[in-house]
Amino acid sequence: NSNSEAIHMNIPLVPLNSTLPNILNNVFFDLGKASLRDESYIELNTLREFLELNPSVKIEIGGHTDTRGNTKENEILSTNRAKAVYDYLLLYEIDPNRLSYKGYGSVQNVISDAEIAKLNTEQEKESAHQRNRRTEYKIIK
């Protein structure tokens, strides 16, 4: 209907009282690096706005890697990536007492290596590894 008015609503994917993680699907890092890529800022600004609108919410930012590579290096990389998101939020004066960050390395994969091995193409396998390499947040209070 051409007379209809568009309405924009921000509806969180995870309720405020949930402790389930909310994946930041559009936060990107270069391979093996912890510096945020420019295309990450749209998603991070949405997270920042959410925190500004909900000043009592505290979150933990979690970084994850796939299982490829050295376990200890993956843990360090995931911690540094979570810290990069934390630092970004601090730039916009989000109270650091409301934020924490943790790197989980490769111990909390969304898709197991066994499941990845069953996939047919290299493209499907790489996509599955990408899903394991993620940044997320969970509400802790």
Describe the structure.
- By secondary structure, the protein is α+β, with helices and mostly antiparallel strands.
- It has helices at residues 41-53, 71-91, 113-117, 122-132, and strands spanning 22-23, 59-63, 99-103, 135-139.
- Strand 2, helix 2 (71-91) and strand 3 (99-103) form a beta-alpha-beta unit.
- The termini are far apart.
- The model has no long low-confidence stretch (mean pLDDT 89).
What would a concise description of this structure say?
This protein is of the alpha+beta class.
Write the layout of secondary structure elements.
Elements: E1 22-23, H1 41-53, E2 59-63, H2 71-91, E3 99-103, H3 113-117, H4 122-132, E4 135-139
The gyration radius over C-alpha positions equals 17 Å
Mean pLDDT: 89
Helix content: 25-40%
Principal-axis shape equals globular
Low-confidence stretches: none
Key traits:
141 residues; alpha+beta; four-stranded mixed sheet; 4 helices; globular
